[in-house]
Structures are given as C-alpha cells and as structure tokens.
Design a protein that fits this description.
Blueprint (H helix, E strand, L loop, with lengths): L5 H4 L2 H9 L2 E2 L18 E8 L13 E9 L6 E6 L4 E4 L12 E4 L2 H7 L4 H20 L5 E5 L4 H8 L2 E5 L3 E9 L5 E2 L2 E3 L5 E4 L3 E6 L2 E5 L1 H9 L9 H22 L8 H10 L1 E4 L5 H7 L8 E4 L8 E4 L3 E4 L3 H11 L3 H7 L8
Parallel strand pairs: 1-15, 2-7, 4-16
Antiparallel strand pairs: 2-3, 3-4, 5-6, 7-15, 8-14, 9-10, 9-13, 11-12, 17-18
Helix pairs in contact: 2-8, 3-4, 5-6, 5-8, 6-7, 10-11
C-alpha cells in the first residue's frame, strides 16, 4: 500500500490482484457489532513479526519477535513506525483461548503472543496469540488498534527473490551469528554455537562470520533474511534496539525498491504481489483492504518515519520471575500518548534524535 501510490489508485485490476493475495483472518479482539468503522481519521495498526524458525518444534511457544505500531495521521501526509521492545515489562491481561487459559500477570510483552496461542495450532494459534498481544498493547498504550497484521520476515526472502535484490544503507558493521565461511573448505558454515533460546553460546573455531559492512549495501535474498535477524553482536550492546532499527530500515528499503522497480515491471509484478501476500496475515478491522489502499495512496516510502522508543538506549531492570526486562521511559510513554492523540508530528519536532536514520 505504501509503495503503490497512483499506480494502484489508477488500476482496478491491479488493486484487486494486490488485495486478493493477502491472507485475511480475524486477529483483533471482538468489538461491539454496532460499532461503525471508517477509514477516515487517524489510524493505528499493530504489526507483529514472529520468531519461528525452519524446523522449529511445534510444541514450543511462539513469541513475537518484533512489535511495531504503524500510525497513519488523519492528514495522510506521512506514516510512522514505532517499535515496542520485545522485552518491555507489561501487565498481560487474563485470557482464555478455549484451550489453555492464562491467568494474567506481569511479564515481557513478547510473552503475550505465546500465552494467547498455547495449546493451539495453525490459524487458531495466530488468532489467539495476536488477540492477546493486541489486548496487551491496548492496556499499555490506551490505543485501540484499527487493524492488525502478522509479518513473516522469512517470507520477505521471496519478495527479494522477485526484486532480485534490496539496496539500503547499513548504519553499522553487522556480524552474522548464523552464516559464515569455513576457512578450510570455503563452504558455508555456522560461525557460532547457538543456544536453544537463540542467543550466542560460543564462537566456532575456523569459521569466519559474514559481516555486512557500514555503508550502501545490496542484499541478496539470503543476506536480507540473515541481516534482519542479527542482534547479539551489534555495537554498544544495543541488541534489540539495533535489530528493531534494522528491521524498520529494511521494511522501508523493501517498499522503496518496490516503488522504484517492482511496480513498473510487468514481468515482476505478478510474482511480487503473490510474494507480498504470503508475507502477512491481516485483520483489516472491518475496513476493506481496497479502502486502506486508497486512503494511503499519497503516502510514499520516503514519507515513512521510523521512531525509537527509549531513544534506542537500554532502561532495564531485573524482575523476579521475569528476568531482565525493559522499562519504558517517561518520554516513551509520552510518545505512545502522542500516537493515541494523533500528535506524533509534535513529538518528533520536540525529540528529533528519536527518529531513526534510514
């Protein structure tokens, strides 16, 4: 939607193709049937990326790897991406998914999806997990989501496959903990031993990790997926904030590459729409996707502003039974209030360093 502009607005066939490829599913908490929804006014969409990996044990809990608020002001002159740290300390409300109830309690926000989906599989697990996550976000921010989507970062590999590459500026040297080269054979090999929770255990001797150097870089599909997963070896120990920043930058870069080449290529377009549709599961909030497209048609990729909570610095505290958790600062709470009240532009003017460069 953000990359299409007048190309979608002017072609009904393309608009139908674009929206038909997207998987639609109920994800948000139920609203009163009488409530009237409209695409007019400010809108906030909750985006959740999952940390599932190929071959993952289906009995293991799935936690949301990234949680992003996409805020669209009533003026429709831009859009904002605000990432909530996955370790943010929150109060997760009581929830019954019909299989394994959750009594509620204090925990990290990424646990909400896990508790909402416990005991469920397939689409039911996605609905239960996202519903509890959305309720948790609503309790934390006071924002009632207008729509929601589950993003599969693994699926973006197929988008990059169609585009051929995605070019963006890498803002710091980023070493991969997953992909490297065996110094003896020259073949691909894992440079680090990884713990079951995804963290680094130790370096593997004789393997040189891939490093994405600071500067302009064009990612292959495999490199793109690897890059957005990195957090453990980022500079200054910024960990999740660094990964948040890189995921935001990557999403924006994908949209720019789509707007710059994909939509203008008859050969690429059908495969691109199909690949994009497979990257997400969407709850449109009762507003047809075509209406969302038309409402956002003037927002270009360069109008997408990415913002850091806690200004990208750690504000952690050890909580009994939870571990090290991130505490949102007073200014971060002001940012979320600005989202609720559609005054993010004023917040950005007052806190320009909170905007992520991309």
């Amino acid at each position: 939607m953000l990359g299409s502009g007048t190309a979608v607005a002017g072609t009904r066939v393309l608009l139908g193709s674009a929206t038909d490829t997207v998987k639609k599913q109920n994800l948000l908490p139920a609203r009163p049937e009488a409530e009237h929804v409209t695409v007019k006014g400010a809108k906030t969409i909750v985006l959740a990326g999952l940390d599932t990996r190929p071959g993952q044990d289906p009995s293991k809990l799935t936690r949301s790897d990234s949680i992003i608020l996409l805020h669209i002001p009533a003026k429709r002159d831009k859009a904002y991406l605000i990432s909530l740290p996955r370790d943010t300390l929150v109060r997760i409300p009581r929830f019954d998914n019909g299989k394994v109830p959750y009594a509620g309690g204090e925990n990290k926000i990424n646990a909400a999806f896990a508790y909402g989906s416990r005991g469920l599989t397939g689409d039911e697990a996605l609905t239960g997990g996202f519903t509890l996550l959305a309720e948790t976000v609503q309790d934390l921010t006071g924002i009632t989501p207008d729509a929601g989507a589950i993003i599969d970062f693994q699926g973006f590999r197929h988008v990059v496959d169609v585009l051929g590459k995605v070019c963006m500026y890498v803002d710091e040297d980023t070493a991969s903990i997953h992909v490297g080269t065996d110094n003896r054979t020259g073949k691909r090999a894992a440079p680090y031993k990884i713990n079951p929770d995804g963290t680094v255990n130790h370096r593997i001797s004789g393997v040189t990790p891939n490093i994405y150097r600071k500067g302009d870089h064009c990612f292959t599909p495999a490199e793109a997926l690897d890059f957005v997963r990195q957090r453990d070896l980022l500079a200054d120990g910024d960990y999740d904030y660094g990964r948040q920043r890189h995921q935001q930058q990557f999403l924006k870069a994908v949209l720019k590459n789509i707007a710059g080449s994909g939509l203008n290529s008859p050969a690429k377009l059908p495969g691109l729409l199909k690949a994009l549709g497979k990257t997400m599961t969407v709850d449109d909030g009762g507003i047809p996707l075509q209406d969302w497209v038309f409402a956002m048609r003037a927002v270009r990729p360069d109008d997408l502003v990415t913002i850091k909570t806690n200004n990208g610095t750690f504000n952690s505290r050890t909580i009994p039974g939870v571990g090290s958790a991130e505490i949102l600062s007073k200014t971060s709470q002001e940012l979320l209030k600005a989202v609720k009240n559609d005054r993010v532009d004023e917040f950005v003017q007052a806190h320009p360093t909170w905007v992520t460069k991309s």
